[in-house]
């Protein structure tokens, strides 16, 4: 038994109750099962959101809930598209319900400070909606003090870090799917799960600034990645983990006045 783990599912229930008893905070990682090219596994967004949340939790003594493993549908302009076999997604209504249920469930435990740590671009708005519906429902039943913060970890990588890590130019977080950001973090945290010899060194994908349904598969590069991971390194991953987790910890401390 790991009584000092930050991960809720590794704790016994008695230790968990102690940790949340006095204004405890719960961080809920939100990932996806999604292809990440030939060089990385499909659970990258789950691993990275959970590990990011773990790093934040260590700094501000929060508990990390078991992650939301499946995510909203991969979109062509940010994840290659849901047509790529392997990518396994939930409907938007389902993500909304999960976010709402979990918020209500932790409220029932007495938790009033929740952070969603998102690791999959397409999840964000559905998590937002689920949280909004939960807060509305809680207010109706007399719970007025629930506060939830929603964060996507890449939003905490500042401009100085971007120019430091992307000297050859930065194409934007949407095209980072399977690229330098995620691959560097995986090389730092889970090196055995990355095969750099299988990286497809492609130029950044050129996609229209609109969506078409059903998708035109030919717009997605064959690798399923939207930019090249060739410049990814474990050192960059270490910097990204430190800066993003420190930024998220600071935001949560500010919001919850810790
Ligand atoms: Zn990803
Ligand atoms: Mn994703």
Per CATH, what is the topology?
Rossmann fold
Radius of gyration: 18 Å
The level-1 CATH class: Alpha Beta
Compute the number of helices.
8
Biggest sheet statistics: 4 strands, parallel
End-to-end span in angstroms? Answer: 29 Å
Structural class: alpha/beta
Beta percentage is 5-15%
Question: Which segments are poorly predicted (pLDDT under 50) over 5 or more consecutive residues?
Answer: none
Report mean pLDDT, rounded to a whole number.
96
Return the CATH architecture: 3-Layer(aba) Sandwich
Quaternary form: single chain
Question: Can you describe this structure?
Answer:
By secondary structure, the protein is an alpha/beta fold. It has one domain (8-255): Rossmann fold, CATH 3.40.50.10310. Helix content is 40%, strand content 9%. It has 8 helices and 6 strands, in the order αβαββαβαβαβααα. The protein has helices at residues 13-21, 44-60, 76-79, 92-108, 124-140, 159-165, 180-189, 234-255; strands at residues 25-30, 63-64, 71-72, 89-90, 113-118, 147-152. The strands form 2 sheets. The protein has a 4-stranded parallel sheet, sandwiched between helices. Strands 3-4 form a two-stranded parallel sheet. Helix 2 crosses helix 8 (234-255), helix 4 crosses helix 5 (124-140) and helix 7 (180-189) crosses helix 8. The chain is globular, with a radius of gyration of 18 Å. 45% of the residues are buried. The model has no long low-confidence stretch (mean pLDDT 96). The structure holds zinc ion and manganese (II) ion. Residues 32, 34, 45, 79, 120-121 line the site of manganese (II) ion. The site of manganese (II) ion has 6 residues, from loops.
């Amino acid at each position: 038994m790991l009584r000092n783990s930050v991960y809720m599912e590794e704790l016994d229930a008695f230790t968990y109750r102690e940790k949340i008893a006095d204004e405890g905070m719960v961080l809920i990682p939100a990932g996806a099962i999604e292809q990440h090219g030939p060089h990385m596994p499909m659970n990258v967004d789950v691993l990275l959101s959970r590990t990011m949340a773990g790093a934040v939790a260590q700094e501000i003594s929060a508990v990390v809930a078991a992650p939301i493993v499946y995510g909203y549908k991969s979109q062509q302009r940010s994840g290659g598209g849901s047509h790529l076999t392997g990518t396994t997604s939930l409907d938007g209504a389902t993500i909304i319900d999960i976010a709402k249920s979990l918020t209500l469930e932790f409220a029932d435990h007495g938790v009033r400070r929740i952070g969603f740590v998102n690791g999959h671009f397409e999840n964000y708005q559905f998590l937002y909606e689920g949280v909004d519906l939960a807060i509305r429902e809680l207010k109706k039943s007399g719970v007025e003090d629930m506060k939830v913060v929603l964060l996507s970890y890449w939003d905490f990588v500042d401009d100085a870090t971007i120019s430091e890590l992307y000297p050859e130019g930065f194409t934007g977080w949407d095209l980072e799917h399977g690229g330098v950001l995620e691959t560097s973090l995986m090389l730092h945290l889970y090196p055995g799960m990355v095969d750099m010899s299988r990286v497809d060194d492609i130029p950044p994908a050129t996609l229209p600034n609109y969506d078409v349904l059903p998708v035109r598969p030919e717009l997605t590069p064959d690798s399923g990645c939207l930019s090249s991971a060739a410049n990814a390194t474990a050192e960059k991953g270490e910097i990204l983990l430190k800066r993003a987790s420190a930024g998220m910890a600071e935001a949560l401390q500010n919001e919850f006045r810790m």
